């Protein structure tokens, strides 16, 4: 009995521990066709009809897909919108490496485009006529989707940053809305002193937010030239950000709450999180996520790093791209163009999306739209101005999704221990360099 | 037991005559065949495939190529991996004795027959094991919260400032607490059932010899359940080395305290799903499997030798 137990146990120990092996599939190289596709080809594809699968969580696409199907009755669009963020990219990467179940159209955020375009996972849209659309889009998003003469997606929305602030709280404590980050720091101190439960903002370390802040501060940590990559957080812009943010962390002026959590919505609603610097796509989320604070919030231009400087940055925003292994390319492209540069844009804007197209951004009706949530403020004026002031020379890493996934392992330390933000960024840089080297990139030091 | 005339169909337990051995062994294969097939498919094949994977490296730039044992040398020099191993080893030497100690204590108390409402205690102590790990971890996570959780409520109600149980210094202990809560009942049940099969005549004899309860415990009960203790220990060792659920579910609440390489299993998961490093992930999993096997085997050898 005892001996057989021991044998079973030995077996169990062996098996249960060895069965960890992750399975993977070899990636298959796919040659993307480069021959030009004429408008006629696309028209005939639309007439012929067919069905395409779209993986996108952007809520406004639902109406766009319905309109598109109405306009081209023979086309059927399967919109798969359950997954977003990391789960979406994991599923997409897995489908691409398995070579099966790849969607015809996928939503890809700007920061993640590089990873897919570099590994030839996406179709170059230039032959379909996408490069002629360049002037339709604002420079920031267009720069994000294009690389030389190649176009890897059409910008769907953009996220020029703005500072949303709880006016009720600012009025209550007679604090002026900060126009520079130094003033922001003062406001944070004043607010927290007046009400120890209130914080100027929440932050527990968020890669997307930090990179956008660095972008605005003029830091350009990533230099990407094909497979040659340089990563360096040691520049003047990063210094500016580190100095102010380190003080906010050290003086415990930031609410220890992560974005998109229940606590976060609660804090935005009850005035304990008084500002939020984020992309212009936020208003729709305010309305659905924080309905009880209607009328309390306002939008303002981002505080400047030096007084009078208008530089802004993008936070978030996505494109629609055509995975190389997708089918029905002409049809898929027709849908993407319709949604992001055609009639679909108006539909999406009316449902609260923030466009990446110049025409809509400069439209007077768009600019004059009053947001009841913001007490009737014409917030789009602020967003449009921010969009115009986005520096377009920023680039993300070709493996930004991975880098972001280890942000809290490295920079996150600065929020919960004595590690300094600058050291956290340095650790992030080293970890990113290590990964880049392992993945075969040439890292310039 | 004596059998005067063996029945025509040979009894399986009797030694077969040598001449029939061949045919018999084939029949044996027939019986274990289905098992072997499933075993090969769901165990040996994945392990083999993992080993195969671990000999390659699939890069974003440069594609897939054979690298021999490079992944292994890399893993053996990987600080993140060894830090994770160290973490679960620390967890193992602290949490497992505490958990098994409590479980043993409870089992002995239940077995002593001096407890009122024995079945009530038995079921309530076992109940946490029936709670899914996800639910248990979330529940504890919310209690640990210093802002809106129980800890936060205690802090504001009594004006004290309890340590943040989700901070880097505390979170391993907090995970240990969750795991202990979950598995004390399970281990208690193993010990308790082992205690129940001890013949009561031994206790009677001990009492006649004038042995007290402590003497009965140390001289009869503990030696008798040694096997069960070794089993529970080995299960706990494997469980500790495979720690994954609790840290990964707790992570959203302790984003900066629980890194993506917090435990070896979590590390393999992150390598695979965040970094698309399936090959290296397989390597780490294999090394970890070997480590677990060696430790579990060593403990088992030691435990059984004493018992023999």
Automatic annotation (TrEMBL), chain A:
Membrane in keyword set: no
Single GO biological process annotation from the record: transmembrane transport
Record lineage: Bacteria, Bacillati, Actinomycetota, Actinomycetes, Kitasatosporales
Pfam family, one: SBP_bac_1
Family: Belongs to the bacterial solute-binding protein 1 family.
Signal peptide bounds: 1-24
UniProt cross-references to CDD domains, sorted A to Z: PBP2_TMBP_like
Protein name: Sugar ABC transporter substrate-binding protein
PANTHER family the record matches: ARABINOSE-BINDING PROTEIN-RELATED, BLR3389 PROTEIN
Keyword annotations: Signal, Transport
Keyword Transport assigned: yes
Organism this protein belongs to: Streptomyces griseoruber
UniProtKB/TrEMBL annotation, chain B:
InterPro entries for this protein: MetI-like, MetI-like_sf, UgpAE/MalFG_permease
An annotated GO BP: transmembrane transport
Recorded superkingdom: Bacteria
Pfam families: BPD_transp_1
Record keyword Transmembrane present: yes
Keywords: Cell membrane, Membrane, Transmembrane, Transmembrane helix, Transport
Topological relation to the membrane, as annotated: Multi-pass membrane protein
Keyword Chloroplast belongs to the record: no
Region: Disordered, residue numbers: 1-21
Regions that span the bilayer: 26-52, 80-108, 120-143, 170-192, 224-244, 280-299
Family: Belongs to the binding-protein-dependent transport system permease family.
Protein's UniProt name: Sugar ABC transporter permease
């Amino acid at each position: 009995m005892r001996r057989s137990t021991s044998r079973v146990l030995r077996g169990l120990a062996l098996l249960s521990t060895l069965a960890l092996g992750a399975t993977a599939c070899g990636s298959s190289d796919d040659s993307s066709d480069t021959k030009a596709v004429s408008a006629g080809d696309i028209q005939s594809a639309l007439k012929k009809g067919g069905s395409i699968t779209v993986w996108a969580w952007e809520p406004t696409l639902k109406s766009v897909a319905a309109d598109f199907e109405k306009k081209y009755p023979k086309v059927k669009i399967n919109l798969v919108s359950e997954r977003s963020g990391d789960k979406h990219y994991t599923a997409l990467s897995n489908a691409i490496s398995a070579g099966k179940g790849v969607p015809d159209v996928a939503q890809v955020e700007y920061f993640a485009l590089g990873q897919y375009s570099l590994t030839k996972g996406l179709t170059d849209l230039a032959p379909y006529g996408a490069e002629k659309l360049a002037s339709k889009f604002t420079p920031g998003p267009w720069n994000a989707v294009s690389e030389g003469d190649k176009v890897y997606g059409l910008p769907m929305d953009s996220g020029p940053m703005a500072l949303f602030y709880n006016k009720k709280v600012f009025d209550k404590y007679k604090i002026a809305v900060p126009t520079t980050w130094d003033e922001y720091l003062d406001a944070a101190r004043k607010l927290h002193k007046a009400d120890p439960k209130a914080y100027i903002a929440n932050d527990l370390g968020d890669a997307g937010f930090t990179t956008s802040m660095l972008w605005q501060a003029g830091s350009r940590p990533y230099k990407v030239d094909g497979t040659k990559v340089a990563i360096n957080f040691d520049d003047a812009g990063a210094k500016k950000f580190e100095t102010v943010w380190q003080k906010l962390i050290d003086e415990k002026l930031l609410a220890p709450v992560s974005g998109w959590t229940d606590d976060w919505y609660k804090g935005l609603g009850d005035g304990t999180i008084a500002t939020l610097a984020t992309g212009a796509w936020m208003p729709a989320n305010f309305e659905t996520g924080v309905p009880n604070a209607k009328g309390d919030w306002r939008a303002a231009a981002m505080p400047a790093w030096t007084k009078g400087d208008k530089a802004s940055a993008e936070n978030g925003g996505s494109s629609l791209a055509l995975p190389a292994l997708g089918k029905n390319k002409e049809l898929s492209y027709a849908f993407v163009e319709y949604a992001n540069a055609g009639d679909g844009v108006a539909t999406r804007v009316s449902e609260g999306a923030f466009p990446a197209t110049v025409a809509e951004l400069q439209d007077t009706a768009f600019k004059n739209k009053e947001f009841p949530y913001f007490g009737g403020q014409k917030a789009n004026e602020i967003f449009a101005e921010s969009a115009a002031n986005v520096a377009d020379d920023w680039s993300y890493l070709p493996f930004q999704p991975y880098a972001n996934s280890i942000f809290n392992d490295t920079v996150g330390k600065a929020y919960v221990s004595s590690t300094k933000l600058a050291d956290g960024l340095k650790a992030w840089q080293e970890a990113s360099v290590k990964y880049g080297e392992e993945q075969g990139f040439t890292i310039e030091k | 037991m004596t059998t005067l005339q063996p029945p025509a169909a040979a009894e399986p337990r009797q030694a077969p005559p040598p001449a029939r051995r061949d045919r018999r062994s084939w029949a044996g294969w027939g019986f274990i065949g289905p098992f072997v097939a499933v075993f090969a498919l769901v165990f040996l094949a994945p392990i083999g495939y993992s080993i195969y994977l671990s000999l390659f490296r699939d890069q974003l730039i440069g594609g897939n190529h054979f690298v021999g044992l490079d992944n292994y040398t890399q893993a053996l020099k990987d600080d993140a991996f060894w830090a994770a191993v160290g973490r679960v080893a620390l967890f193992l030497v602290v949490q497992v004795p505490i958990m098994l100690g409590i479980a043993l204590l409870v089992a002995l108390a239940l077995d002593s027959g001096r407890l009122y409402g024995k079945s009530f205690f038995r079921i309530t102590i076992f109940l946490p094991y029936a709670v899914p790990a996800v639910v248990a971890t979330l529940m504890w996570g919310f209690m640990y919260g210093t802002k809106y959780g129980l800890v936060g409520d205690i802090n504001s109600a009594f004006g004290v400032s309890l340590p943040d149980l989700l901070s880097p210094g505390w979170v391993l202990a907090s995970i240990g607490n969750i795991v202990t809560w979950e598995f004390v009942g399970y281990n208690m049940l193993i010990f308790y059932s082992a205690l129940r099969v001890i013949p009561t005549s031994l206790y009677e004899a001990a009492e006649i010899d004038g042995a007290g309860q402590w003497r009965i415990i140390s001289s009869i009960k503990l030696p008798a359940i040694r096997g069960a203790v070794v089993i529970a220990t080995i299960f706990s060792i494997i469980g500790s080395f495979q720690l994954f659920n609790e840290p990964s579910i707790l992570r959203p609440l302790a984003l900066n305290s629980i890194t993506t390489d917090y435990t070896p299993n979590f590390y393999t998961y992150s390598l695979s799903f965040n970094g698309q490093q399936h090959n290296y992930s397989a390597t780490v999993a294999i090394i970890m499997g070997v480590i677990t096997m060696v430790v579990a085997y060593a403990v088992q050898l030691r435990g059984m030798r004493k018992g023999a």
